Amino acid sequence: MEHQQAADLIFGTWPLKGDATREATEMALDVGYRRIDTAQWYENEAEVGDALRSAGLRRDDVRITTKVKPDNIGPDRFLPSVRESLDMLGLDRVDLLLMHWPVRDDAGFCQTIEALNEARDRGWTTTIGISNATTAQMRRAVEVTNA
Hints:
This protein has five helices and five strands. The chain is of the alpha/beta class. The protein has a five-stranded parallel sheet, covered by helices on one side. Helix 4 links the parallel strand 4 and strand 5 (125-130). Helix 1 runs parallel beside helix 2 and helix 2 (45-55) packs parallel to helix 3. It is elongated, with a radius of gyration of 15 Å. It starts with 9 loop residues before the first strand and ends with a helix. The relative contact order is 0.13. The model has no long low-confidence stretch (mean pLDDT 94).
């Protein structure tokens, strides 16, 4: 069996907080990780951003994922929360933006997928998706997405 390179692995930052997040992320980048996963819910995006800046890597050499927490799902909160995440990370875009936990009602779910589409259309992310979704929700997301 062939061994994976660290660059092929994703470094997840949950449940790290504060300096532990920054130090662990710096170490992960130092040993070769090039994919970092964070989320609004983890409350560590700023420290991940600090680690990214101190690593001195080119932006295109690192892939960043973040997730929008359920409290920010809604037409008035979603996009501002994504902008806040970008500011904390110190980035103009993330590579993957996810809805962390989907809402159960179809109208709210579709609004959130539309907000994900808008974030992508604004250039704030390259790819969108949902975490922790049912099969039916995944199908619905594909129907609503303007890929």
